[in-house]
Each structure stands twice: as C-alpha cells, then as structure tokens.
Amino acid sequence: MAVYSVTLEQFHIDTTRSRNDDTNTVAFGLRAGKRSFPTQSHYAGDVDDGDHGVNLTFPSVVVADGATPLVFNYTIYNGNTGKLAGGLAAANEILGEKALDFVQQAGQPSSEVSYPDSGGVDLNGAGIEWKDGSWLQFIPLVRLGSFLFPDCDGFVAIGSVGKTKAGWDKAIDTAGGTTYRQTIRYPGSDSPAGCGSNSDYTVTWSITRHRAAGRSVRQFLRDHNLALAPGLRSLTPGERLSVRELLN
C-alpha cells in the first residue's frame, strides 16, 4: 500500500489563443478505483506568455492493490465557461470516466496499464509533445461539439492520465523513488479569424508517493490526516487492505 499526492503544478504559455490575454479557468479531477474525488478548480484570470502556477493537489490518496487504477484529468479553458453544457467540472468528470474505464478493462493483477496507451506518458521524465494537435481528440469525449467557438473562447489544454498502482510505482521508482513529474505540450488548432495565433501551452503535473515503512501506523495516519472509520478498509473502499500492506 502507499499514499499518493497528485498535483497540477502549473501551465506555461508560449502563445495565447486570444489576440491579447487569455482568460483561463482550470479544472482538475481524480479517481482511485471506486472512489471519485470532487473536482477542484482554479481561476487564473487574464494571463499572457510565461509560467502560471496552479498548485491544485489531491493529498493522501490511499491505494492498496497493484491493479487499482489511479487516474486524473485536467482542462484549461479560455473564456466564458458558461458556454459549456454542464460546466467545466462536468466535462472533466467525463474525461475521468473514460480513463478509468480503459485502465479497469485492460488491467490484470499487478499489471502496469497506462492511459493513453500510445503517445502517452514515458518513464524518463522527458516532456511529451502532442505535435499534431491530437489532444483535440478529447473534445468529442466531453460532448462539447466543435473545438472552434464563434469567438476566441475555447480549450487550450485537455489531459487525462491513468495508470494502475503498479504502473505508477514503476514510474516513480524510475524517477528516483519519491516523485514522478511530467510536462506535456499542447499545441492548438486553427484559431478563429480575428483571434491570435494557434495557442501553445504546456502543463506540468506530479505524483508523489509516501510510505509508512519504519514508522508507526498511528503516526503515519496522523501525518497524512487519515482516519479509520472504523477499520483499515475505510481507507480504501472496495479494496482489501491488511496491516502488512499498510506498512509496505
């Protein structure tokens, strides 16, 4: 078993979608097995080229079984989110469902399933680039119709990443044993006439693993604000969990 913290750290703009500033709202969601965590949001406001901190975090996510999927997803939208049916959070939820379904259907005990299964996350910490704008394939999944809105509003980044616990542990071990961080580039499609050039964004996220080895169970739970209500299984609904697994 391990406890993970998943963080959407920042986005970087090389080119805005609008002629001047983009006005961005960020949504960030996470699922671990049968557990769904409430979508978090961050209003970045008017932004131009450069780095922009987000720092949305899901802390203390407990996962016990190697085949349990842990998936997260994020969307960055420029403009009025009121144009989106159901809002940005609803779109984000649909992305999470898609990734979770894929990992669950493909997974075997202790397997290292990843989503996307191609063009996705490598294990070397190198930035990934959707060179052909293929990240736009996510648009139909969130049932929002065309990427091109009548004005300059639109998505500038959409990502959905999932692995089984075994897959995340391998990625973290390869990256040094504590934190696996990734930066992914999202080049935009054609902007409507009168807007700026095609948008060009990168998004950085990370996942950190915490373990209880060498410490008391009580102190470990206290450190991560975890409470039993009652019994160990309350930490991982739908998964089996023993004291031995908790200490590994």
UniProtKB/TrEMBL annotation:
Q: Its domain of life? A: Bacteria
What is this protein's name? Uncharacterized protein
